[in-house]
């Protein structure tokens, strides 16, 4: 079964064809990073406009790369939530039009579920149930994946997501957008124990995250040094910051696995590409004999292959949408 996936939740216009939820036939991504870098972050209005300009060519390229036409496709999966509402509407509207004219089933896909499904592409042996850490610019969740279409969120951020914290700390350190990869590179050169940064916790919620205090601590460290005229070793700050974020993420997900009786753990989302997090997760799981699944780096960020993969499992479970489908900016994974 071939699913055409369409993704436009933020600043990547993407389309892909995936067979049976696991085999990527084509995967096309048009990125807007260079343009948004001029502004230090994603500008929603610009993102929406570029999606409008790119989506026809991207979908056409995905079908061409797969050596298929729309007639060869069994269903169309599209990200409808959560994300930037203007950006989502471009993908949803295009998918609705394509489904209507081609008489193909339309499958609404939750963006976070798509990130989780990125592991099905990279690991054919992975099957639910398992525990998944989803960490990206907009999300930090610990999720019980009970089967391919059912989830229970047991931990989430109370404020900033881990990826957002990376980007804001990176901006304060003078790195370009998106800052996560620059902090990762700097951390490899720095001393991860050079500075004292807080390990934020949420009282009474042992699996939840809070990164705003850590972000503020980094900002204050840089600003205070500037005001006093003292030198800050940027690579050391980056290394220390990355270590603390990774320790917080790994500590909570391991605690959730121990308490929940899980011995299979996965990670997904843009932050799962971070080398420090991958190493910390691998070390923690190796110590405990847990199985760890990490997506290939090319599937960590937003892409349509993950949407097509999850679209397959949603499709075979009977999930469909009609022409009333709309984009939704905020929607819990448990509410789908």
Fold topology:
Elements: E1 2-7, E2 12-19, E3 23-31, H1 33-37, H2 44-65, E4 75-81, H3 85-102, E5 106-110, H4 111-122, E6 130-135, E7 140-147, E8 150-156, H5 162-172, H6 180-187, H7 212-228, H8 234-260, E9 264-268, H9 275-288, E10 291-293, H10 305-316
Parallel strand pairs: 1-4, 4-5, 6-9, 9-10
Antiparallel strand pairs: 1-2, 2-3, 6-7, 7-8
Helix pairs in contact: 2-3, 4-10, 5-7, 5-8, 6-8, 8-9
Which short descriptors sum up this protein?
Nucleotidyltransferase, domain 5; globular; 336 residues; alpha/beta; 5-stranded mixed sheet; 10 helices; 2 domains
Description:
The protein is α/β, with parallel strands linked by helices and 336 residues long. It has two domains: 2-116 and 299-335, Nucleotidyltransferase, domain 5, CATH 3.30.420; 128-297, Nucleotidyltransferase, domain 5, CATH 3.30.420.40. It is 43% helix and 19% strand. The protein has ten helices and ten strands. It has helices spanning 33-37, 44-65, 85-102, 111-122, 162-172, 180-187, 212-228, 234-260, 275-288, 305-316, and strands at 2-7, 12-19, 23-31, 75-81, 106-110, 130-135, 140-147, 150-156, 264-268, 291-293. A hairpin with a 4-residue loop joins strand 6 and strand 7 (140-147). Helix 6 (180-187) packs across helix 8 and helix 8 runs parallel beside helix 9 (275-288). The radius of gyration is 20 Å and the shape is globular. The protein starts with a strand and ends in a 20-residue tail after the last helix.
Helical percentage? 40-55%
The percentage of residues in β strands lies in: 15-25%
Arithmetic mean pLDDT: 96
Q: Compute the number of structural domains.
A: 2
Going by helix content, strand content and strand pairing, the class is: alpha/beta
Counted beta strands: 10
- The CATH architecture designation of the largest domain is 2-Layer Sandwich
Largest beta sheet: strand ordering: 3-2-1-4-5
CATH topology label of the largest domain = Nucleotidyltransferase, domain 5
Q: List the total number of helices.
A: 10
List SSEs in N-to-C order: EEEHHEHEHEEEHHHHEHEH
Q: Whole-Å distance between the termini?
A: 23 Å
Rounded to the nearest angstrom, the radius of gyration is 20 Å
Low-confidence stretches: none
- CATH class of the largest domain equals Alpha Beta
Give the CATH superfamily of the largest domain. Answer: ATPase, nucleotide binding domain
Sum up the overall morphology in one term.
Answer: globular
Question: Biggest β-sheet, characterized?
Answer: 5 strands, mixed
């Amino acid at each position: 079964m071939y699913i055409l996936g369409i993704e436009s939740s933020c600043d990547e216009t993407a389309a892909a064809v995936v067979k049976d939820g696991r085999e990527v036939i084509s995967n096309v991504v048009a990125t807007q990073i260079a343009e948004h870098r001029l502004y230090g972050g994603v500008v929603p209005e610009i993102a929406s406009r570029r999606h409008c300009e790119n989506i026809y060519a991207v979908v056409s390229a995905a079908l061409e790369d797969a050596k298929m036409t729309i007639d060869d496709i069994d269903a169309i999966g599209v990200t409808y939530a959560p994300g930037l509402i203007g950006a989502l509407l471009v993908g949803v509207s295009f998918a609705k039009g394509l489904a209507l004219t081609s008489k193909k089933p339309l499958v609404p896909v939750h963006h976070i579920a798509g990130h989780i499904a990125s592991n099905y592409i990279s690991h054919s042996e992975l099957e639910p149930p398992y525990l998944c850490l989803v960490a990206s610019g907009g999300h930090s969740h610990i999720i019980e994946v009970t089967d391919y279409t059912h989830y229970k969120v047991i931990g989430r951020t109370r404020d900033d997501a881990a990826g957002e914290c990376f980007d804001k700390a990176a901006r304060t350190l003078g790195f370009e957008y998106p800052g996560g990869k620059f902090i990762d590179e700097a951390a490899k050169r720095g001393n991860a124990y050079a500075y004292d940064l807080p390990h934020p916790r949420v009282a009474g919620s042992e699996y939840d995250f809070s990164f705003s205090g850590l972000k503020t601590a980094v900002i204050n460290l840089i600003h205070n040094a500037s005001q006093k005229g003292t030198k800050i070793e940027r690579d050391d700050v980056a290394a220390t910051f990355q270590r603390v974020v990774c320790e917080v993420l790994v500590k909570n997900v391991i605690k959730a696995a121990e308490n929940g009786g899980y011995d299979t753990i996965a990670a997904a989302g843009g932050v799962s590409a971070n080398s420090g997090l991958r190493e910390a997760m691998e070390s923690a799981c190796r110590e405990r004999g847990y199985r760890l699944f990490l997506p290939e780096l090319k599937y960590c960020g937003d892409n349509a292959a993950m949407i097509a993969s999850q679209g397959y499992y949603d499709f075979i479970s009977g999930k469909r949408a009609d022409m009333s489908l709309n984009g939704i900016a905020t929607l819990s994974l448990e509410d789908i």
